[in-house]
Design a protein that fits this description.
Elements (H helix, E strand, L loop, with lengths): L1 H11 L37 E7 L5 H14 L3 E7 L3 H14 L5 E4 L1 H9 L7 H7 L8 H6 L1 E2 L2 E2 L1 E3 L1 E2 L2 E6 H7 L10 H11 L7 E3 L5 H11 L17 H15 L7 H6 L2 H6 L3 E7 L3 H6 L7 E4 L9 E3 L3 E4 L6 H11 L2 H9 L4 E2 L5 H7 L6 H5 L4 E3 L6 H16 L5 H18 L2
Parallel strand pairs: 1-2, 1-3, 9-10, 12-15
Antiparallel strand pairs: 3-13, 4-5, 6-13, 7-14, 8-10, 8-11
């Protein structure tokens, strides 16, 4: 027991910080049974009054989750659910790491791609395959890629909650004033750069685009568009030393250092790119579908912005990912926790997520409701991009090479290191880590 405890502590000392993780490929909107034809999961009312803890990190999703919990409470009056909100994804994973080491994970929690293998393989999560089979819950109701993502060692650990892609948001007012046509989904990288040049006004502290050092919302997508990849399909080799990956990274650093149409990394550290966009200081921002609700609520952006599909280069490309709800292996109320998770995976819960515009629900057939929830934005582009989406890159110990990305790419974003050199150094060290994975 002592040796296992030390091993678990060592593994979790390297836990990743991130808001989202990876998906498992394939088109999430296709396949599966029609929601209307599937029977709801069978649940039994618990005999005792219990309170479950439910951990999440996005404040924008709290109202929808509270509404879902209210509906759940109507069906299961003996189960109370207490939301444990952490302000950011980074803080969330730091908190979960500490809780995992101490054996005090919340009863139910959000899980992402980069962390599922680590938590599942270290015995921190409850396998739910038997519960799914006994309840009658139909896994065909969810994108197969997400079900596969949360299956580790042949065992299912999570019920898909949502999925997301990335779009290019733009300020219509700024575009109109600069006489620039709106992006229409047919832009390439050159079009983005040329538009950004026209939209940049150094004297007013206004930039055409924010070159955020963000993997999921920025350079993972351009690497795909350049024809490259972050990691090989067999998870044994880094793709960062390929010309395509370097081109995808260089697109972003050039926006800062060559074209000078983006704030510097230091400026984006002082004021986040999303805040710069929401204050009219940045005209274009690549952002995940989960940000739609943020922009709809913000007084500045709610009627001034819209979203288009990402530009293409050698090919079209976008990263897809999705979260799942999982159960702690050490919950004192496994039966009640499963009852709650199965409801979170129901069509009823998905419709609440969709109609409130919170996120794109994973339950097949409910995505159109999400698109219609915020009619002033062209949210359909997030769904349309699924046809050429690629899974968020992960491996067993994703956090190890995620840390390398942060360490070396930061030097390239600040101009301290050439992006070519940074990418090759990451690839070398990443390959060493991948060789150690089993």
């Amino acid at each position: 027991m002592k040796k296992r405890s030390m091993a678990v502590m060592a593994a979790f000392a390297l836990a990743a910080a991130g808001c989202s993780g990876g998906s498992g490929g394939a088109n999430p909107s296709s396949g599966g049974a029609k929601p209307a034809d599937s029977a709801p999961a069978k649940t039994e009312a618990p005999a005792k009054q219990v309170t479950l803890s439910y951990a999440l990190w996005d404040k924008n999703q709290v109202p929808a989750m509270e509404e879902i919990i209210k509906k759940f409470k109507e069906k299961q009056p003996n189960i109370d659910v207490k939301i444990e909100l952490t302000p950011s994804g980074k803080e969330y994973w730091q908190k979960m790491e500490t809780a995992a080491i101490g054996g005090t994970l919340p009863d139910v929690l959000w899980m992402n791609g980069p962390n599922i293998v680590k938590y599942a393989s270290n015995g921190m999560l409850m396998a739910i395959g038997d519960q799914v089979k006994a309840s009658g819950l139909d896994l065909k109701n969810y994108p197969e890629s997400l079900v596969n993502l949360y299956t580790v060692g042949g065992k299912l650990y999570g019920i898909p909650k949502d999925f997301d892609t990335v779009g290019m948001w733009y300020n219509k007012k700024m575009f109109d004033e600069a006489g620039v046509k709106y992006p229409d989904g047919n832009w390439d990288w050159n079009a983005v750069v040329e538009a950004a040049k026209k939209l940049t006004n150094p004297g007013k502290g206004v930039w055409g685009i924010a070159a955020d050092m963000n993997s999921q919302e920025a350079y993972y997508n351009t690497i795909i568009q350049a024809g490259g990849g972050v990691i090989s399909d067999d998870k044994k080799k880094s793709g960062y030393d390929s010309p395509e990956a370097i081109a995808g990274l260089k697109f972003w650093t050039d926006l800062i250092h060559v074209h000078k149409v983006s704030p510097t990394l230091a400026q984006m550290t002082d004021t986040t790119p999303i805040k710069l966009f929401e204050s009219g200081k940045v005209a274009m921002l690549w952002a995940g579908s989960w940000n739609a609700i943020e922009f709809a609520k913000n007084e500045f952006t709610k009627d001034k912005v819209d979203v288009a599909a990402l530009p293409k280069q050698k090919q079209q490309g976008v990263v897809i990912h999705g979260l799942a709800n999982v159960i702690s292996a050490k919950t004192k109320n496994p039966k009640e926790a499963w009852t709650f998770v199965s409801f979170l995976g129901s069509k009823e819960a998905a419709e609440i997520l969709a109609k409130t515009g919170t996120v794109i629900p994973a339950f097949n057939g409910t995505q159109t409701t999400w698109v219609k929830s915020t009619p002033q934005f062209n949210l359909q582009v997030y769904i349309d991009m699924l046809s050429y989406s690629k899974p968020y890159p992960v491996s067993k110990d994703t956090s190890k090479w995620n840390n390398l990305e942060t360490e070396y790419f930061k030097k390239a974003w600040t101009g301290e290191l050439k992006i070519e050199d940074a990418a090759k150094q990451v690839a070398t060290k990443m390959n060493e880590f991948l060789a150690q994975e089993k």
